[in-house]
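[Solved] Which block belongs to which protein?

Original post:
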Amino acid sequence: MGRSLVAQLLKVCKEHDNVEIWTRWELSELLLSGHDGGVIGARVQRRGSDESVDIHASLGVILTTGGFSQNQEMRDAYLTGTATSEATSGMPTKTEWSLASDGDAGIALRAGQRIGAGSAQLGQVWGIPTMIDP
C-alpha cells in the first residue's frame, strides 16, 4: 500500500515543472520563526554526508513520514506492553520483525517532539502477518 501511494505521488509530481524531488536526504531539524515560533522550514542533511540545506516554506510544512518501525529505542519506549492480548502484553518488539523501510525510524516524530509538537497514539500499532520469501 505505501509503495503504491508513493509511486502515484511521484508520478504526479514529475508531471509538474515546479516540483523538485530530493532523494537520499533526511530531516535533521525543523526551522522556527523568530517572530512567533511557528515552523517555517526544515534543515535536511544528505545521507552519509555532512552536507545540509535549509529549505524555507512560505505556506507551511507538511511532514509525511512513516512511523518508527525501524527505531528500537522508540519501539521499547512506546510499544512494549501495549499488546491487546494478555498472553502477549509486556512482550518486547524488535525492529527485525518489521518489513518497513529503513527510513521508518521516527525522525520527523523526534523533530516535532524537540519543538514541543504534540503526538498521539504512539502505543498503537498497525500490523499484518507477513513472511519474507526465502
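(Second protein starts here: sequence line, then its C-alpha cells.)
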Amino acid sequence: MDADTTVLLRLAFDRAPANLANQAIDRIREEVGGESSYATSYEILLPDGNVRPWLLDYLLPRLVDYLESRGAKLPHCGGVFLSVFSGDTLHFIHARDAVALLSEWSGLSFEELRKRYGPR
C-alpha cells in the first residue's frame, strides 16, 4: 500500500469486511443520516499502486459534480460518505474529509473545485 493510500484510508471513521458490504453500508447510512434522513454512499474501488493521480484526475471531478448536483455542497458535503473498497476491507470516509484532502493535494480551493468540476 502506498503512502497516499494510507493517508486516505486513515480518514475512515469505520471499517467492515468487504464481503459484508451491503449490510455495512446500510448500517452506516442509518448512523450518518440519523432518524430524520438517509445518508448516501458513494462507492469506489481503490486501485492498487499509486492512487494520487487516479484520485485527482478521475475521482475528484466526478465526486465534486455528484456532490454539488445532489445538493451536498462543498465543503460540508452533508449526508454523503464514501464507501472505499481496498483489498478485502471496506473503509467509510465522510465525503467532507475526502474532499478536504483532495483539495489540499490538488492545490485547488473549494470554490475552484466547484467552478472547475461542478455542474454547468
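Accepted answer:
You had them paired correctly. Confirming on the second one: Residues 3-117 form one domain.
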